[in-house]
């Protein structure tokens, strides 16, 4: 493991302690993507670093004082109150110990030469896991065994109710107290308006709400097998399988971004980004087989919560203003550390022309990767259909997600093969922000 990660120093802010105060400034050093793209290790380390820096705030007397998180400021704004964080202060002793352990990781990332060896990151994460301050009672040995390979890929299987299918990989995030979230959710019945009998929305929810990505793929494969069997007399159960698979395949095609409007709302307002201190508003987002650090920010101007994910693309290494991207279904614009939108012409480190070209290149790469993902969604099962039957046979339209770093519900063998092929076409694909 001789790989290294470049680092970038960013200036960013957390919400003010009250409407009459200014944003609370922070300076942090984060990891930037290497050849493995936005991997789980990168997101985990950056989340822990920002969590540490957002909570490590000392008053004049030098005593630890937890910083205010966006979720609490938002809750207080709804109540019209500016009460103190009494619950946080009761936990200040545990918080101080936790931050003391995280400080070891922060020192490693702040290496003066601007890069961090993978081995040093794995070592300090292992030490942090064994510190006893983090609830790692699930299975320490399994979590430790994941660390050496966490930078190349994890087998994560999202469920369409906003959770994940249980796996050893989930232990990694639980051990460090970092929430793993996703927004690839099917809208529940209570949120669907004007439902009618036999409404497709009702059928879709019944089929998908309790299924994982792998289970949905199994349904598509089963329907494909039935249609390729050339049996003219299909049972009622087989017909139901084909009907359900049509609904699922259509929904997967319309949610290629692996983020739905309902899922985005759920992440913003219904999911608590908890950690061992009871503070902070950070989590790791799983989307399109990538992992990203996300921050729940209370906008004091609009009075609402917003989700942003940290920019770690290597193309923005020397562009200090580019810190966040707003999490949206489409058109994820760039923002600085104070959550002001950044435009190419405002960048002061390069000429406007060069900056504009870089900005457009990043946009073009994002669009190209989205197109590649969309085209490769049906590849596996279409090949199966071609081998098993002549082209004239009708079949369901199964969908498979292809990733650059990790495969949702897929094997590491398939993941490595796809990743190698993507790299030979264009190495920069791994570094596109999702």
Quick overview:
This protein has helices at 40-55, 70-79, 86-90, 92-109, 118-129, 140-146, 169-175, 200-208, 213-228, 236-254, 261-270, 352-376, 379-388, 412-425, and strands at residues 4-14, 24-31, 115-117, 180-181, 282-287, 290-299, 304-310, 324-326, 334-335.
Task: Identify the notable features of this structure and list them briefly.
alpha+beta, single chain, three-stranded antiparallel β-sheet, 2 domains, globular, 434 residues, six-stranded mixed β-sheet, 9 strands, 14 helices
Structural description of this entry:
41% of the residues lie in helices and 12% in strands. With 434 residues, it is α+β, with helices and mostly antiparallel strands. A 6-stranded mixed sheet has the order 4-5-6-7-8-9. The chain has a 3-stranded antiparallel sheet with strand order 2-1-3.
Task: Show the helix and strand layout.
Layout: E1 4-14, E2 24-31, H1 40-55, H2 70-79, H3 86-90, H4 92-109, E3 115-117, H5 118-129, H6 140-146, H7 169-175, E4 180-181, H8 200-208, H9 213-228, H10 236-254, H11 261-270, E5 282-287, E6 290-299, E7 304-310, E8 324-326, E9 334-335, H12 352-376, H13 379-388, H14 412-425
Parallel strand pairs: 4-5
Antiparallel strand pairs: 1-2, 1-3, 5-6, 6-7, 7-8, 8-9
Region (Disordered): 384-434
Protein name: MINDY deubiquitinase domain-containing protein
GO molecular function: cysteine-type carboxypeptidase activity; cysteine-type deubiquitinase activity; K48-linked deubiquitinase activity
């Amino acid at each position: 493991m001789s790989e290294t990660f470049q680092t970038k120093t960013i200036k960013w802010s957390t919400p003010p302690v009250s409407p009459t105060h200014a944003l609370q400034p922070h300076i942090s050093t984060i990891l930037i993507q290497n050849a493995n793209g936005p991997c789980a290790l990168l997101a985990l380390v950056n989340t822990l670093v920002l969590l540490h820096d957002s909570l490590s705030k000392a008053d004049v007397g030098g005593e630890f004082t937890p910083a205010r998180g966006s979720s609490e400021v938002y809750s207080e704004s709804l109540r019209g109150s500016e009460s103190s964080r009494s619950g946080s202060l009761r936990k200040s002793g545990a918080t101080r110990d936790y931050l003391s352990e995280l400080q070891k990781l922060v020192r490693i990332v702040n290496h003066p030469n601007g890069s961090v060896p993978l081995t040093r990151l794995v070592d300090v994460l292992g030490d942090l896991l064994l510190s006893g301050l983090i609830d790692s009672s699930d299975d320490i040995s399994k979590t430790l065994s994941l660390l050496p390979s966490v930078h190349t890929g994890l087998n994560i299987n999202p469920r369409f109710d906003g959770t994940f299918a249980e796996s050893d990989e989930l232990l990694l995030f639980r051990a460090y107290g970092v929430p793993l979230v996703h927004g690839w959710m099917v809208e529940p019945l209570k949120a669907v308006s004007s439902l009618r009998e036999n409404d497709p929305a009702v059928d879709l929810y019944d089929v998908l709400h309790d299924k994982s990505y792998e289970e949905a793929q199994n349904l598509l494969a089963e329907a494909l097998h039935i249609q390729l069997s050339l049996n003219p007399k299909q049972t009622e159960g087989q017909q139901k399988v084909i009907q359900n698979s049509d609904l699922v395949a259509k929904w997967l095609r319309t949610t290629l971004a692996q983020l739905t409007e309902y899922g985005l709302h759920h992440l913003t307002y219904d999911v608590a980004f908890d950690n061992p201190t009871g503070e902070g508003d950070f989590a790791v987002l799983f989307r399109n087989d990538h992992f990203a650090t996300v921050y729940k920010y209370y906008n004091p101007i609009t009075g609402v919560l917003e989700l942003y994910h940290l920019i770690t693309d290597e193309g923005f290494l020397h562009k200090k203003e580019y810190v966040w991207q707003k999490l949206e279904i489409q058109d994820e614009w760039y923002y600085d550390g104070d959550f002001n939108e950044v435009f190419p012409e405002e960048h002061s480190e390069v000429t406007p022309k060069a900056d504009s070209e870089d900005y457009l290149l990043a946009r073009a790469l994002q669009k190209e990767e989205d197109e590649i993902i969309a085209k490769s969604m049906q590849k596996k099962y279409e090949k199966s259909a071609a081998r098993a039957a002549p082209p004239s046979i009708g079949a369901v339209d199964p969908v498979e997600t292809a990733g650059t770093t990790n495969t949702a519900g897929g094997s590491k063998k398939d993941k490595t093969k796809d990743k190698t092929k993507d790299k030979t076409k264009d190495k920069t694909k791994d570094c596109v922000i999702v």
